[in-house]
Write a structure and sequence with these properties.
Strand order of the largest sheet: 2-3-1-4-5
Oligomer: single chain
CATH class: Alpha Beta
Number of domains: 1
Structural class: alpha/beta
CATH architecture: 3-Layer(aba) Sandwich
Radius of gyration: 16 Å
Largest sheet: 5 strands, parallel
Strand content: 5-15%
CATH topology: Rossmann fold
Helix content: 55-70%
Number of helices: 8
Length: 199
């Protein structure tokens, strides 16, 4: 099973993805936690270098292609539940809605980069931008290039529209993380019931 958490920076997706991973581990379920960008240096490069929107997009797509081919697909084939902090909706939201690139073209390019691999379940953590920025300031003391109010407003709007199109479950990122984990587990349970499996 392939599970993805999406949302703007500061939405709580990283915390929730870790909580789910730890829960599955305690239950003895084979699972791995991963994130995008998969190459840890890539985000730093994009933030430090002055790439245009397409330049940064191609870097993220190359990273995603490598991630899927060399980590996600092999782990799925080995029977692991793969939990990813970000996947292709982030490119559509950030580079499409945020940076103004053509959404339909981004979808085609993402499909090529991933070999058409879709998540079984996608959760979008939604939170007001002002709250997200306060969280970022509190945890890191400063914001980065992608963490500006007007930009994140467009990205947030994109995530909500994409969630509706893709059938992703939108979660209120201001709620208690344990309550959110309960919602996630309920959704996973329903998904597994349809396949005749249990968590």
């Amino acid at each position: 099973m392939f599970i993805v958490f999406e949302g703007i920076d500061g939405s709580g997706k990283t915390t929730l993805s870790k909580m789910l991973f730890e829960f599955l581990q305690r239950r003895g379920i084979k699972s791995v936690l991963t994130r995008e960008p998969f190459d840890e240096t890539l985000r730093k490069v994009v933030l430090e270098k002055d790439f245009d929107p397409w330049g940064e997009t191609f870097l993220f797509l190359a990273d995603r292609s490598y991630h899927v081919k060399n980590f996600v697909k092999p782990k799925l084939e080995e029977g692991f539940t793969v939990i990813s902090d970000r996947y292709y909706l982030s490119t559509l939201a950030y580079q499409g809605f945020g940076r103004g690139l053509d959404i339909d073209l981004l979808k085609v390019l993402n499909d090529r980069a991933t070999g058409g691999l879709k998540a079984d379940l996608t959760f979008v953590l939604d939170i007001p931008v002002e709250v997200a920025l306060r969280r970022i300031e509190k945890s890191r003391g400063s914001t980065e290039r992608f963490e500006k109010k007007h930009f994140l407003e467009r990205v947030r709007e994109g995530f909500l529209k994409l969630a509706e199109e893709e059938g992703a479950l939108v979660l209120n990122g201001e709620r208690n993380p344990y309550e959110l984990l309960g919602e996630v587990l309920k959704k996973i349970g329903l998904f597994l019931d349809k396949r005749g499996e249990k968590i």
